[in-house]
Amino acid sequence: MAQSLSDRTIKIVVPYSAGGGNDSFARALQKPLEEILDTSVTIQNIAGGGGVVGYTQLLAARPDGFTVTIPNNAIFTLQGMGNATFEYDDFDYIARVTAEPYVLTSNPNLGWEGLDDVAVADGPVKIGFPGVGSSAHIMAVAIVESLGVEAQMVPYGGDADALAAAMGGHIDAVVSAPIAVASAVESGQLAGLGTTGESALLDGVRTFADQGFDVTTLQWRGVAAPSGLDDDIRQQWVDALQAALDDPDFQQVMTNLGADVAPLYGDELDAFVERTAADMVPLAQRLRQ
Amino acid sequence: MSDIVASLGILVDIKVLLGIAFGTFLGLVMGALPGLTATMAIALLIPLTFGFPPEVGIGMLLGAFCGAVAGGAVPAILLNVPGTPSSVASTLDGFPMTRRGEAGRALGLAIASSFVGGMLGALLLILFAPPIATFALRFGPAEFFSLAILGLVVIAAVSTKSILKGLIAGGLGIFLSTVGSDPITGVLRFTMGEPSLITGVNLLPALIGLFAISQVFQDVFERIYKKKEPLKKQALTSARPPWGALRRAWKVIASSTLIGTLVGAIPGAGGSVASFLSYDQARRMSKTPEKFGTGHDEGLIATESSNNAMASGALIPMLTLGVPGEVATAVLMGGLTIQGIRPGPMLFEQSGALIYSIFIAFLLANIFMFLIQLFGIKLFVQILRVKEAYLMPSILVLSLLGVYAATGNTFDMYLALAFGALGFLLNVFGFGTAPVILGLILGGIAESNLRRGMTVFNGDWTRFFTQPISLALLAATVLLLFFLFRKKSPQSYGSGE
């Protein structure tokens, strides 16, 4: 059954409402993929349960490569928190396209300049993050453990509330994405303490690894299908994505969104997924208790 | 100064002007359709802006934001169905005017008030953005909690005849806000195994159900069981902005604009509470508070000027801190980011020309919004000529489509229908639906901030009473309750200042 991805319409399921980062990523891929594969690509937003509803519906589709989704760390945290009926290996991961670190910033009045300052601070340090059970929450837990500091975990509804709380001094520090804090860090409204990996937006902020702390988990976005994908179809996807990443409009949107295009495929991708799952799932499971 | 001159260039760039006009028009249409919101209008436009020059893209997005907030008033006034959460309060005095046959005048008032509120809010944004942002940052857990409590009491007081029933309806909303993942521990509450409820009861299906679908049910009910009074013939000659009424209500406009801008500027305060707070304030300042809720000019002026000032206010923390003021601005910020503009403090410090372009585009969007609506009034009113036998099914279909379009989740359509039934019952028994929706919004804010406060204050609850802003808000709540229960007639509580 030699099928071609050009045979039918491709549907990308975005498990969030239109307008967010995941949605923008999918829509930026849409046009280059349509040109390369010579077929139409539709985006379907299925929001609910922080991704559970959309991912669950994706998994009910046939693994023929015509229905795919945009995976990210939420898959691991939803599994770990016990909010989803799926597990991360129910997906066949086709590619990682972008990666970005998590970043720890603090209220500038505390005078903290790096992670060592937090590690020796008089606890408890009040650490905020957007969303209980979110990947930022899991990272906040991982960061606190790595720093070995006494902390109060303070969940917020979203990035905006958490960042405003840190700027206003209601909490000490906040875990978020580079794009959310880049402007505030540059202007000194927030102090950048450490990132879990390199970020072009925050080149003045050193990584956790550089400062001697072993926290390297990255947020990422890519393409995944329900498991059971045919090898030939997978290869067609990889070829199409490799070509799509050269599209200048796509690159521009990713640069503006602060996501580094850092593609991984095949065995390297599998290793990355396993490593990230091992970082996140057990921590999320512990939060449940 | 050269920055301002440079940014004035967009005034003569026809592409930019068309972009703003198109965005505003689309925003107005989507804001006016029940089920489609400002958030949706902006989200829909974002992919469209990918290939555009930034000035055009920004203008289009700002226009959509501005238009959608104003457009929500049209169905609120004509059909008692608010197009967006922030226009819920405009049903209180807007729809009674339509009932009296003054739909044209009501729309004229709303449009003019939106315009004035929007322009004044934009001026506050341009002149005082940094200090307002600094004020907004003083809101911590205690302040949010107290603001939410004040908001709940105000809404219960203004939206129903009986304060007790209003509070009960608000309580129901608070209960519904507890559904879903616990905001602090993540434990699932009352989700009954339904994954769509993990993140709580979705606001849009609740709004659409309580206001739009409940109207449809009510219409069917009245058609079967009682003779319905026919709508008065609309006097279309008055379908233009009554500027005189606006001038007389300048105090109302001033206080509503200020309240709208400030509440809009506080990230996470739930902008829709602004129009209720303004309404309450207008009623207390009024010489004729008993007329509020019966189709009174001042009521509609208060809610609509506050609404569009709220839109300007929500831009303040986005532009000065990089933190959006509410949901629609969060999506707007995503759209600007894709255009290569990173909203935040650096924008203010470095890209002077860009920030002035944003200001000018926003002012233009307000002007376009006014002009488009001005020519649209006579068209809007035609909707009332449509026989209810056709109108009501159309509202039902549009509402359910809107809900589905927003989330793509069929569960939300069932949820909207269930809320429709609930809203119908609440209306029949005089509880009102506005307190439920605001309870749903503010209940979550109150609960999460109470518990967040208990965490960061190390369990010291007295901090809720010792922080000055929080104390002031709680004191206002207690005073309000005192006056409400002392007076026999809730409509006249305002006269006892």
Automatic annotation (TrEMBL), chain A:
Alphabetized SUPFAM superfamilies for the sequence: Periplasmic binding protein-like II
Transmembrane annotation, as ranges: none
InterPro entries named in the record: BUG (IPR005064), Bug_dom1 (IPR042100)
Pfam families in the record: TctC (PF03401)
Family assignment from sequence similarity: Belongs to the UPF0065 (bug) family.
PANTHER family, alphabetized: BLR1237 PROTEIN, TRICARBOXYLATE-BINDING PROTEIN
Protein name (record): Tripartite tricarboxylate transporter substrate binding protein
Species assigned in the record: Vreelandella neptunia
UniProtKB/TrEMBL annotation, chain B:
Pfam family name, one: TctA
Residue ranges constituting the DUF112 domain according to the UniProt record: 17-438
Keyword Nucleus in record: no
Domain of life: Bacteria
Transmembrane segments: 20-46, 58-78, 106-128, 135-157, 163-185, 197-217, 252-277, 315-341, 353-377, 389-407, 413-443, 464-485
Lipid metabolism in keyword set: no
Keywords: Membrane, Transmembrane, Transmembrane helix
InterPro entries registered for this protein in UniProt: DUF112_TM
Protein name: Tripartite tricarboxylate transporter permease
Organism: Vreelandella neptunia
